Automatic annotation (TrEMBL):
This is histidine kinase. GO terms for molecular function: phosphorelay sensor kinase activity. SMART domains: HATPase_c (SM00387). SUPFAM superfamilies: ATPase domain of HSP90 chaperone/DNA topoisomerase II/histidine kinase, Homodimeric domain of signal transducing histidine kinase, PYP-like sensor domain (PAS domain). The lineage of its organism: Bacteria, Pseudomonadati, Pseudomonadota, Alphaproteobacteria, Hyphomicrobiales. Pfam families: HATPase_c, PAS_8.
Length: 354
């Protein structure tokens, strides 16, 4: 059987598109065919470059026996680099001649794929846990406005029968505010769900430009409250989803403005400290602060440390920040003191702006 005929049979059997390394070896131990995946694996471009070489040159120590497997081998690339492989041999017969089909698995790629799958599974587990916890808390919080709507609906019906205009207006206002509260909770639930489920679109972002975009989104609030924001940032670039990073910074800034001291404008300081490989972004305010013991609870969904009457809101903003940081692999933390203020820290790897 000619080498050309053997190569033709080889192509018909496995195709060049097969995502595995295949070598066809004759009875003398020489390679008579190789698919594209195997050529790439060993550093060859054209099939003619690998055909005719002894199998032992690419797989030193291999024992090519039909039906056998060689585990723990190292493949040898054309450039001399070694890499771990598993190899299995199968026999093919034609016209009385026997050739071996070597199936080769590059363990570097297998391990990388397994690690990626494990990481993805762990991320999905964390996402599901956060969503389950959020949905539970949200369902509890939703009961309050829904209960009020039901109660004051009955009161309004009685007031209508009595033609009590004042009571009708009061019941209507309570029901309206309760409905708005319920709607806000549902919208926050959807927003949180999108944050933890949407695919990240990572890109290189200039840190200063990204933070200025977050400030621009809050420009009206900053102007109305006369908030003072100081920025001192190095010239660095980070890898992040632009929309989510801006949402993270925007939520922390909005939180600082919201929890300012009564009668005083918010004072916010945005700084960053870097070393060779990482950066710590610090957003500090001089607001009302909180007890240090609540530093972890503040990132829980729908957790509010202060009165909802004085500081209305759903308590989802910082939970979203935590979810964004977790998805990027960043570390988000906070330090605070009552009547002194709070400082949020975001630790993340960086890359040069160039």
């Amino acid at each position: 059987m000619s080498e050309a005929a053997t190569a033709d049979d080889w192509r018909r059997l496995v195709f060049d598109e097969t995502v595995a390394g295949f070598l066809l070896v004759d009875q003398l131990g020489k390679i008579v065919g190789a698919n594209a995946w195997a050529r790439r694996m060993f550093g060859f471009v054209a099939e003619a470059e690998i055909v005719g070489l002894p199998l032992s040159l690419l797989l030193p120590g291999a024992s090519p026996v039909a039906g056998g497997s060689d585990l723990g081998l190292q493949g040898l690339r054309r450039d001399g680099a070694r890499f771990p492989v598993d190899t299995h041999f199968s026999s093919l017969a034609r016209d009385g001649a026997t050739i071996l089909l070597a199936t080769i698995v590059d363990l570097r790629e297998t391990n990388a794929e397994e690690a990626a799958l494990i990481a993805r599974a762990e991320e999905l587990e964390r996402v599901n846990e956060r969503l389950a916890r959020f949905a539970f808390v949200a369902s509890q919080d939703l009961q309050e406005p829904l209960r009020k709507i039901a109660v004051f609906g009955d009161l309004m019906e009685e007031a209508i029968l009595r033609r009590d205009t004042d009571e009708i207006l009061r019941a209507n206002e309570v029901m309206r505010l309760s409905a708005l509260r319920a709607r806000a909770l549902v919208q926050d639930l959807l927003s949180f769900s999108r944050i933890v489920n949407d695919e990240l679109e990572l890109a290189s972002l200039d840190l200063r430009a990204a933070i200025e975009l977050a400030l621009a989104a809050l420009s009206q609030t900053i102007a109305e409250t006369r908030a003072q924001v100081e920025i001192d940032l190095p010239d660095v670039a980070i890898e992040a989803d632009a929309t989510q990073f801006q949402r993270l910074v925007q939520n922390i800034l909005a939180n600082a403005i919201k929890y300012r001291k009564p009668g005083l404008p918010a004072t916010i300081d945005v700084r960053a400290f870097r070393d060779e490989n990482s950066l710590c972004l610090a957003i500090a305010d001089e607001g009302i602060g909180f007890e240090a013991q609540y530093a972890h609870k503040i990132f829980e969904p729908l957790k509010q440390l202060h009165s909802k009457v004085d500081y209305p809101g759903s308590g989802v903003g910082l939970a979203i920040c935590k979810a964004i940081a977790d998805r990027h692999g960043w570390r988000l933390s906070v330090e605070a003191q009552p009547d002194v203020g709070a400082t949020f820290f975001i630790a993340l790897p960086l890359r040069d702006a160039s």
